[in-house]
Each structure stands twice: as structure tokens, then as C-alpha cells.
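Supplementary Methods, section 5.1.

A reviewer requested that the exact input to the structure prediction be made available. We therefore reproduce it here, unchanged from the version used in the analyses.
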Amino acid sequence: MGAGPAGASAAIACAQRGLRVLLCELRCFPRERVGETLHPGAEPVLERIGVWDRVREAGFLRHEGIWVGSPECRRFEPYGSDANGPWRGFQAWRADLDAILLERASELGAETLQPCRALEPRLSGCRVTGLRTSAGDIRARIVVDAAGSQHWLARRLGLSLRRRSPRLIARYGYVRGRCAERDEAPAFLSDQSGWTWTAHVRPGVYQWTRLNLTGSPPPADWLPQELRGLEPGPATGAEVGWRALAPSAGPGYYAVGDAATVVDPASSHGVLRALMSGLLAGRLIADGVLDGAEERSGASAYQAWTEDWFERDVTRLAHLYRDLPQPPSWLA
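The structure derived from this sequence is encoded cell-by-cell as follows.
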């Protein structure tokens, strides 16, 4: 379920091993999604799933690092360099990235039902054996939940979520126009109550994300100072409180991407985590189906991997937020 980066990468990994794959996606593409920053570390993963050349040629804006600090005092942090020159990240337009990944899955033989609403999991005892969908019943050896942070499958199976923060609401949106200050590189700037991210995502289009860590979210008409005076687009919000599904894999199912773990966008590698969790789940699924690997050990290995990544993210974010001018009281 879900044809975003996590679901598409799981589909690609399974299809690369010759498994029959069916992707069920609720919405028609292209769909509005916040722009995504792909750090240079994503290149090996994109190569492994066979889309690196397409991503490189997609015309995404590129940058050699980010501005960090506060509105009053900021510094540029480059990604690094090697003998070939500076490392550069991508500011990926999400609709185009989704299309690249879905096209690759289709080339490998994956089928897609779109739009298709998942209604209920099919169960045999405690094992997931497929889905009931708006397109009919689907039988499956393994169901992968890549439907995002609403934890669709977990809620229907009664699985627990381990929460490590209060409810946090990130707001994000776009503006159109010209902001020369932001054309070279994105900025992540903190203040008394949280942080703001701004980035040039397409010619004449800038994205902003705001997370208040102390108090309520900003008002609906809020814009970062540097983008005020430009033409505002629609803004929306998402719940990004830190939480992890336990277990993230079990009899007949895997949860990947935000369906497995959620941390706020300051972790800075949401797409990379989505891609890597989908790839790992796909490899473990293929090992079980084709090579006879013990399903329980595969699920256990995946749970350990997602838990380790989540704990590292939580530790990193806690250190980051303790250094804010006004650290959130809930970190204590």
C-alpha cells in the first residue's frame, strides 16, 4: 500500500528478484507533496535501484550545503568534497521523484492499481494474507504498508506506537517569486520557539517548513521573514511527533518509511530513510519467498534495523534541540 518512495523502493527490490508485485495507491499522480532534499549520501541507494541517472538528469536544483544557525547569526555548512569536486545535494520536486520511482518499478514488472483504497487487511489467525480494497480482494504472501504516518495497517492490527515526544505539528507551504537570498542553498535556522527551513525548490518557487517546539503552531497566514512579499501558495500541516511502530514487521507484513517510524523533518533524511527501509524490507521478503529464509528472523532483523535508526534520530534531535535558545521543556 502506497507508491511513494518507501513503497516504490520496496516494490523495486522485490521485482528485481523476480517476485510478482502489486502496488495499491490511493491517489492519482502527480500529487502535491512537500519538496524533498536529497543529500549526497542518497546517490548509492538511487544507483542500487536503477534510477540515479534519471534523478541526475531530472533538472532538480542542486546545492553544496546548507545555512544553519539563527536568523541573526548563520554559517554555511558544506556537504564535503573529494577528488571530483564538491558533493552536491538535490532539491527534488516530489511529483517528479515519485514518477521516476514508479516508472522504474513498472519497468521491472510491478503492477499498479491507482486510485485504489485499502479497506481492511485480510487475516488468517494473526497472519496478514492480503487486503480488501476498493478494487476487490487481493491475496498476498506479504503486505507492505507504505501508506505513511497514519499507520494504516498498525491501527487495524492493534499494534502499539512507542512515542518519544509530545504531538508536534509542522506547517509547510510554497511561495512564488524571487528570493535571491535563498537561491544558492537551503537554510535551517532556529529561534526561541523552534526552527524554520527554507529552500529554492523550482525556478521561481520556494518552500518553507516551520516547527514550533514550544507552544502552538504558527497562524495559517504565517510566512518566514525572507519570503514575505512573495506570492503565497497553499499551506498545510502534518503531525511529526517522534514515534515508532512496534513491531514494524510480523506475520505477513512489513511497515516501511513513515508507516514504521516518524521523526520531525529536522532529521533531514526522510526520503533516504524511506528508500532504505523499502529496499531492506524488499530484500528480506525476497529472501524468505525465494530462498526459504526463516520469516521470523527476517522480521526480527528488520525491527532491529528500524529501531536502531529511530533511536539514533531521537538522540541526534534531542542534542540539537537542547542547544536551542529555549530548549523545549519536554526534553527533560
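Residues 295-322 form the longest helix (28 residues). These observations are discussed further in the main text.
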